[in-house]
Amino acid sequence: MDSLKGKGKAGSKGASKLDLLKEWTNWSLKKAKVATHYGFIPLVIVIGMNSDPKPHLFQLLSPV
Amino acid sequence: MADLFPPLVTAQIDDKPKVDEKVDYSNLPCPVPYEELHREAYMSLKTDNFEGLRFDFTKGLNQKFALCHSVMMGPTEVPSQSPDTTIKIPTAHYEFGANYVDPKLMLVGRVMTDGRVSARVRADLTEKLMVKANAMLTNEPHMSHGMFHFDYMGSDYRAQLQFGNSALIGASYIQSVTPRLSLGGEVFWAGVPRKSGVGYAARYETDKMVASGQVASTGLAVMNYVQKVSDKVSLATDFSYNYFSRETVASVGYDYILRQSRVRGKIDSNGVASALLEERLSMGLNFLISAELDHKKKDYKFGFGLTVG
């Protein structure tokens, strides 16, 4: 709402607020994408290793 | 007059089932989710035929947690200039996956040797509200995509809201109108190719058959019918028509679910005949054979695989 009001009142101030918001969302989405790309599978493994009954690390790594 | 015509016993018997069948409109069952409208038809007809070797090994560490390794070796198709020729490049890849399945939370992640990660999350926030997310992430810029879905399940309806990257927003709603018929609609808006669309769908099911149809403003009209002939056999047919490009495809298929195996076969109006056999050799060991013959393009694909666990 603030950004819309800002746009009406003073063009440059409003435009920069909207731009800042866009830039911030783009930056956070990029970081979230990288975090998910590298971290999703380790997250699943951590959640799985901590569930009941707790499996051993050996079971995680052995091929059998 | 009543004395001349003695009451027929059959009339009374007919009355009973009619009373039972009186529809209780306040207590209708919850319909299937909108994306699973054509579930029975797709289970029988859209088989994942593959070419080459496929080996899947799933190791369960726990009731809820499992790791899977899969190896696929075979030619993969590359889109070619002319529609008559198909270019295939032999590739081999290994995929590692981790699954965590809980009644309230499901996490499935897969990573391939070329760095592509596919992730699926499904979480039940409350009894009625469910969040689903799936993403396919690659190292190449601008080639990743992801979608979020929020599902709300009411007593006899379901509503869903979807958000995807590159500004894709969609909503769908499906309602049970009678115990057997459910009607639904969807709306979507895609930001990048500035397109929006509306679609309608209907599904009628009984114990023995399921018929469903869907029409969308993107030009696609789909109708399918599945008849469950017995516990083990079902026959399905599907008809899809694109009214902008005037392309039609009709297919007929069967699905035999036997004790030790499952066979699915299908023939298409494009001249494609395909079949998939999954045989359970012993506990946890499944053998797969897939064949797809495309007589029009002269493309014949055969594959075999083994699934362990």
UniProtKB/TrEMBL annotation, chain A:
Keyword Transmembrane: yes
Keywords tagged on the record: Membrane, Mitochondrion, Mitochondrion outer membrane, Protein transport, Transmembrane, Transmembrane helix, Transport
A single BP term in Gene Ontology: protein transport
Localization of this protein: Mitochondrion outer membrane
Topology class, membrane: Single-pass membrane protein
Domain of life: Eukaryota
Any single GO CC term annotated in Swiss-Prot or TrEMBL for this entry: mitochondrial outer membrane
Family note: Belongs to the Tom7 family.
PANTHER family in the cross-refs: MITOCHONDRIAL IMPORT RECEPTOR SUBUNIT TOM7
Listed name of the protein: Mitochondrial import receptor subunit TOM7-1
Source organism of this protein record: Eruca vesicaria subsp. sativa
Automatic annotation (TrEMBL), chain B:
Subcellular location: Mitochondrion outer membrane
Gene Ontology terms describing biological process: monoatomic ion transport; protein transport
Function: Central component of the receptor complex responsible for the recognition and translocation of cytosolically synthesized mitochondrial preproteins. Together with TOM22 functions as the transit peptide receptor at the surface of the mitochondrion outer membrane and facilitates the movement of preproteins into the translocation pore. Directly involved in the pore formation.
Membrane topology label: Multi-pass membrane protein
GO molecular function terms listed in the Swiss-Prot or TrEMBL record: porin activity
Phylogenetic classification of the source organism: Eukaryota, Viridiplantae, Streptophyta, Embryophyta, Tracheophyta
Family: Belongs to the Tom40 family.
Keyword terms of this UniProt record: Acetylation, Ion transport, Membrane, Mitochondrion, Mitochondrion outer membrane, Porin, Protein transport, Transmembrane, Transmembrane beta strand, Transport
Entry keyword Transmembrane: yes
Predominant location category: mitochondrion
Keyword Membrane listed: yes
Gene3D superfamilies given in the database record: Porin
Protein name: Mitochondrial import receptor subunit TOM40-1-like
GO CC terms in record: mitochondrial outer membrane; pore complex
Organism in which the protein naturally occurs: Eruca vesicaria subsp. sativa (Garden rocket)
Listed CDD domains: Porin3_Tom40 (cd07305)
Signal peptide: none
InterPro entries for the chain: Porin_dom_sf, Porin_Euk/Tom40, Tom40
